[in-house]
Amino acid sequence: MIDREGLGSFLRHRREALQPEDVGLMRGQRRRTSGLRREEVAGLCHMSTDYYARLERGTGPHPSEQMITSIAQGLHLALGERDHLFRLAGHTPPSRSVRSEFVSPGLLRILDRLTDTPAEIITEVGDTLRQTPLGLALLGDASLRTGPGRSIGYRWFTDPTVREAYPPEERDQLSLLYASGLRQLVALRGPGSRAAELAALLQDNEDFRRVWDTQEVGVQPPEVKRFLHPTVGRVDLNCQTLLDPDQSHRLLVYTAVPGSDSYEKLQLLTVIGAQTISP
């Protein structure tokens, strides 16, 4: 059963505890609100200000599990706080497994500060959960992807347009990389895992079976990632990775050597945005 008074009080407390800088927002000169404004939180949670305000006042509808998940991420809640929020809303908290798409507040805080850098948070099977604006401009809008196609490894073997974003001379090695990584995850997570599901779906794919049957494991990604962007052309980037071991999520941060041609192209992408990128 929903605890409307408790839910409203908890939401208000968490909102007032957050500062704009905590969630990647700019602090205006005329800010009188303690913490974030309701409309700012509503925007972070992808809902209307009226809907969120009614939840805080204890007069709103019974929020769905999907809505509570969105609120928990928008407020940058830790897992314990997320579980408490679910219980206040009358729902059973989601299991804490490696399949969870709940991003830790620590990773979110780092991502929020990378406003001028291509970066993304991905799951262990390559589903992109969050992107910076420049990450979206470089790699496409991950929110438009659904089903198995959310995984870069699955898309690599089933969508020919994905390979067009990488130099031809590197595509065979990338095929081996994705198949190798999936094989290791199947052994680690076992039957019924997301990795096992993706591997089963790909068994009828000739390109996948060719590299899968080599039994390769431990293939490492290249030190420099090379992308063929449809507008700015080839971009050579280093990729730094930060791992959240509890959720098996990775924060990937792409950087170019200052003064290089790729660095200048990233600056251009900050201007033109993602207008030419498809999902």
UniProtKB/TrEMBL annotation:
Transmembrane segments: none annotated. InterPro entries: Cro/C1-type_HTH, Lambda_DNA-bd_dom_sf, MLTR_LBD. GO terms for molecular function: DNA binding. Residues 10-82 form the HTH cro/C1-type domain. It comes from the Bacteria. PANTHER family: BLL4672 PROTEIN, BLL4672 PROTEIN-RELATED. This is XRE family transcriptional regulator. It comes from Arthrobacter cheniae.
